[in-house]
Amino acid sequence: PRMEVTDWRAVSQSYIHDKIKSAIESQHIDTNFKPTIIVAACEDAIAPARIVRAELKARGTKLEILNSKLELYDEETNPFNVHYKPWTGSWSGARLLLVDKADNSRTSIAKFIEFLQSKFGEEKAGKADFVEAQIGVFVLHNKLRPKAADLPEEVLNGRYFVGENCENVQIAYPF
């Protein structure tokens, strides 16, 4: 459902870094989920993905970032598109942390997860020893509003990480 935004909020790079650091510490992303690769869901997610990677690296976890471009502006007039640089490694056993700036309507995150699961399925079809890949989600801001899509239960139950829950406000990011 479309909701009207009634307020604006600006956040600084320092504020973002503090929220990500706090989320990693309090939600134990490095020990509870143990990601093996980070996927930045869009170009604007690269900055938070790099901060997530730096914080995890400081705790002993070295990760690569896979940059993808997600396009979903209006599911009726502009179908879902992913511009994706093929991952040269194997998805077998991967613990993928999908990073995005905000979970607004949840539609783009849900579609992106479906896309990734299809990639896992393609690889699984060709490998008898494929170990199921797992997806976690980290969003800097989870907007407290009705969501237009659902995420898989396994993501919502222990693999959905949030920097901050916030009202349905427009957020001006420094990147």
Automatic annotation (TrEMBL):
It comes from the Eukaryota. It comes from Chlamydomonas leiostraca. PANTHER family: HYPOXANTHINE PHOSPHORIBOSYLTRANSFERASE, HYPOXANTHINE-GUANINE PHOSPHORIBOSYLTRANSFERASE. This is Uncharacterized protein. One of its GO terms (molecular function) is glycosyltransferase activity. Keywords: Glycosyltransferase, Transferase. The keyword Repeat does not apply. Gene3D superfamilies: 3.40.50.2020.
